[in-house]
Amino acid sequence: MSTPLRNTFFSHTILNHSAMRFAMVGAIGFLVDLSSMLLFSLWLSHTAARGLAFWVAASSNWWLNRHFTFACPTNNKESNKKAAVLQWMQFIGSSMLAFIPNWGCYVLLLTLQPLVSNPTISLLWPYLAMIPGVLIGMIANYLLARFWVFSSYTFK
């Protein structure tokens, strides 16, 4: 299969749907979240590092979703700046709502760490425990972003 055909197939099937673009941004956001947590956990407890990493990841996800996932409806730079601030606040607010089950799952899984007998898994447990909550939060985040934060945008 030639490259142009592959690019056409990819762009017309995978990237054509906002949910798939949102999931791709979410995957990048997870890497931002994880790397931020790793960095912050050098100086803070795992739970404090997890909370701070949320803000970094949520802000990067907002920017990526604004510029990649959802189409921008207007080119007016001044109104875009004002709208961007409101939109960021809405996105952070919706992310905080979706973070509730994410955080709950993380804290619950942290309580199970003493049950892990493998020393390597036990060492990695605070980071592995992030994964299920992130997946749960992604569904809520997409619905809130799609139908509230970016509701005035056009979708596919």
UniProtKB/TrEMBL annotation:
The keyword Transmembrane applies. It holds the Pfam family GtrA_DPMS_TM. Coiled coil: none annotated. It is found in: Membrane. Keywords: Membrane, Transmembrane, Transmembrane helix. Its main location: membrane. Residues 21-150 form the GtrA/DPMS transmembrane domain. The chain crosses the membrane at residues 20-44, 91-112, 124-149. It is a multi-pass membrane protein. The keyword Signal does not apply. Belongs to the GtrA family. This is GtrA family protein. It comes from Marinomonas colpomeniae.
